[in-house]
Design a protein that fits this description.
By secondary structure, this protein is an alpha/beta fold. The protein folds into 2 domains: 2-147 and 330-356, Quinone Oxidoreductase, Chain A, domain 1; 155-300, NAD(P)-binding Rossmann-like Domain (Rossmann fold, 3-Layer(aba) Sandwich). 26% of the residues lie in helices and 24% in strands. It is built from 10 helices and 19 strands. It has helices spanning 40-46, 99-102, 151-167, 185-196, 212-219, 232-236, 252-259, 284-293, 306-322, 324-328; strands at 2-6, 15-18, 29-38, 60-61, 65-72, 85-88, 91-92, 115-117, 121-122, 129-132, 137-140, 177-181, 200-205, 223-226, 244-247, 267-270, 297-300, 331-336, 352-356. Strands 3, 5, 6, 10, 11, 18 and 19 form a 7-stranded mixed beta sheet that branches. The chain has a 6-stranded parallel beta sheet with strand order 14-13-12-15-16-17, sandwiched between helices. A 3-stranded antiparallel beta sheet has the order 2-1-4, with no helix packed on it. Helix 4 (185-196) links the parallel strand 12 (177-181) and strand 13. Helix 3 (151-167) crosses helix 4 (185-196) and helix 3 crosses helix 9 (306-322).
Amino acid sequence: MRAGVVTPGQASSGRVEEIEAPTPGPGECVVQTLEIGICGTDMEIDRAEYGEAPPGSPYLILGHESLGRVLSVPLGERELKAGDLVAGIVRRPCPECCPSCADGQWDMCETGHYTERGIKGAHGFMSERYTESPAYLVRLPQDLRSVGVLTEPMSVVEKGVDQVFLAQRRLHWVPRRAVVLGAGPIGLLAAMLLRLRGIQVTVCDQVEPTSPRAKIATDIGGEYQNLAGTSLTAFLSGKTLPDLIVEATGYSPLVFEAAQNLGRNGALLLTAVTGGKRTVGVDANVINSDMVLENHIILGSVNANRDHFLMAVRDLGAIHVLYPLALEALITRRIPLAQWTQGLTKEPGDIKAVVEVQK
């Protein structure tokens, strides 16, 4: 059986490896992998920036954005059946079973000893088959076959937006205007989700208004603003400031600029992890005063639990009905498993590259 693997700690080690087919343990399903999405996390692991193989394994099977088809289910399983489309949940609870993990909120793990398939201490889904407990599989309707691989990134968006709305229950908050910074997969999925909630959305990036990314933003009824050669502050000058800003670029100086461009009672959602070393001078007094006097919040969000995966499936279905072409346009390149490492290099026009493990 073939799998896409890396050697953690060794840069540019991505390759196809022949491995043994998995044998299901008690209570496990066998799943045939159909597609795997490639994201910045996979690229960073292949650059040896992080990534951890399971104990005793010389390699890590990559792939945390998955779409598969169930081949067999354990005796007594009632939720799943052979032939179902499924997405695999990424994170697993810590062995200490901290209060958050015990409550099913392993995305809020208190010990940091969680594992993540394809990232930290557990093999991912980029193999021709894998085994998994039904508790970590989420069923998708068959009509999401073409976009189901977007379930995991959509779950990340769902978690972040859900957390913002939960936090804003501290006041009467009916957001009308949002700005999304970054027209990558997370940014565009966030824009789609906010449009689904009836919120006016402007997507900002540095690509031309004629680009596929900009077209997706406008095709869902949003606006697009090219910030190349200007700034977020200049763009928003004289306009009604947004109730919500979603930061999805990973460019840390933009975080502080965004914090100074929120409307009253506004929220800033951070979804991107920033690496490297970068310093920036900020007017700390203004940021502090605005947060206090304008009731601002800044909220960071990572990963997702089962509830967010279920939300993702529900809302992908709704978006696929409303904006089918825009949603499918997020996937710009499909690559066979034998050449999966091509997905680690971005090509012009790329939004989301997907590895086809099985057609």
